[in-house]
Design goal:
CATH superfamily of the largest domain: Pleckstrin-homology domain (PH domain)/Phosphotyrosine-binding domain (PTB)
Strand order of the largest sheet: 6-5-4-7
Distance between the termini: 32 Å
CATH topology of the largest domain: PH-domain like
Strand content: 25-35%
Number of helices: 3
CATH architecture of the largest domain: Roll
CATH class of the largest domain: Mainly Beta
Number of strands: 7
Structural class: alpha+beta
Oligomer: single chain
Order of helices and strands: HHEEEEEEHE
Largest sheet: 4 strands, mixed
Helix content: 40-55%
């Protein structure tokens, strides 16, 4: 971003410098909007506990306000980290984080195997 500002000061006239400044600024703006939306949702939830129920045909997330059930075919990818699984759903831009410690190794492998049937697992 400093390069883009420097280009504007020096007077380079092409749109490249606007791209160098605009792309990071747009990314930061989108990230901030996402962060603010998630923070607002969290603050509005009366109870922050989430119950995860893993079944042979689906996975269910339940809070005090809502229950969401997703068939395994709806989970397109899992990013597997030592302490968390990120489950990416239909549009691949929305994910749910599930702490691995709460799952145990056997259930973690079960989830990864179910997703592999219709999607991919990234480790």
């Amino acid at each position: 971003m400093a390069i883009g500002i420097g280009g504007l000061i020096v007077g380079a006239g092409d749109g490249f410098w606007w791209l160098v400044i605009g792309a990071p600024a747009a990314y930061a703006g989108f990230w901030r909007a996402y962060y603010d939306r998630v923070k607002k949702i969290r603050e509005e939830m009366p109870d922050h506990r989430v119950t995860v129920r893993v079944e042979p045909e689906s996975i269910t997330f339940q809070t005090s306000e809502r229950t969401t059930t997703i068939k395994w075919s709806g989970i397109k990818a899992v990013w597997s980290y030592p302490d968390v699984l990120l489950l990416f759903t239909y549009d691949r831009q929305t994910y749910t984080a599930v702490p691995s410690a709460a799952l145990g190794e056997e259930l973690r492998r079960f989830i990864e195997d179910k997703v592999r049937e219709h999607g991919k697992v990234v480790t």
